[in-house]
Amino acid sequence: MTDPLLRWRAEFPILDTCTYLVSHSLGAMPRAARAQADAFLDAWASRGVRAWSEGWWETSRQTGDLLAPLLGVPAGTVTMVQNVSVAQSAIVSSLDFTGPRRRLVVAELDFPTNQYVFEGWRRHGAEVVYVPSPDGLTQPVEPWLSRIDERTALVCCSLVLFRSSAITDVRPIIERAHAVGARVVLDVYQATGTVPLDLTSLDVDFAVGGSVKWLCGGPGAGYLYARPDVAAAVVPAATGWAAHARPFAFETGALDPAEGEARFASGTPNVSAWMIAQAGYRIVNEVGVEAIRARSLRQTRRIMDHAAARGWRVRTPQDDAWRGGTVTLDVPDSARVAADLLARGVIIDHRPNAGIRMAPHFYTTDEEIDAALAVMDDLVHAS
Fold first, then answer.
1. d(CA 277, CA 272)
2. Domain 33-285 class, CATH top level
3. In what order do the strands lie in the sheet with 313-314?
4. Distances in whole angstroms, Cα of residue 334 to Cα of each of 164, 356, 383
5. Would you say the pTM of this structure is higher than 0.70?
6. pLDDT for 244-285, tens place per residue?
7. 313 close to 330: Cβ distance less than 8 angstroms
8. Cα–Cα distance, 336 to 111 (Å, whole number)
9. What superfamily does domain 4-24+289-382 belong to in CATH?
């Protein structure tokens, strides 16, 4: 193996057992994740409650600081949460829906959890406005701009759409929101770890995501970035004791919020999941997202060229600049083909109204892709 990225294959045990093309859904587990889990269990077993003051309580900050370079933000601006639903709930609960600025703008093609959270705030006076998609694949800028006005409190936009892997041109959306006094939360779940990010340059107010996918961090490790000036200005209503300025004082009554990113915490920290996630973060930082992106564009193009030669419908942008790390192939009887691929050890997934999603990562070989596509050729032909 002359490709320097492939030296990392040995760190991911599942790669010895199957063709793993589903890192857009669940990244492969690094070997070091087991050591991280053991470190948590050893501390619990040997130190008991003392583990809180001997490192556990700092896990959110430590894990967030490992993630910060991958987001392009300063250390001390990322707080770890359980998942994006918790993160979005904290953000939207910091808004006031009693006045004229009560509009929540969200994409029609956004991941459902964002829509579910915002819809729940209708009972508190929020107006939820959906940005339509002209083709079911992309979210162009123009429909956003016409729906963001002085009534808008928050705009939620996914940088990479989960079904099609289309990248949204978010800068003009952010600029429009700020021009009318609204804030923006960017969902970077499908981007972080495979698309280079500079959230500081984008000047987003918030960003949310999780570790399940390209970060190879496993479940239970969501994250929330807040620009420092925004973090100082808002106080979430969806909160918990970990967000208190003095959590171990156990003061009753109204919350006295912690400074900075810690005020977006909730209840008891998810220490084990956040420690495990650190293993994936370290590897992705060492490999480098620029190198991962270059590999991803080359290998997703390989898949798309194969599909084009066979007349398969590709529901992913052709332009490299606007494609994330996944290729979605809409072939005849795609649900059945997906099930048969899984049965043959080609690990992909299928989404309704989209098709079969395939995602190489930095540990994927060209030979694996070609072999998987050969199996798919047989299955599609059989249909």
1. 9
2. alpha beta
3. 313-314, 327-330, 355-358, 349-351
4. 15, 6, 10
5. yes
6. 999 999 999 999 999 999 999 999 999 999 999 999 999 999
7. yes
8. 24
9. Aspartate Aminotransferase, domain 1 (3.90.1150.10)
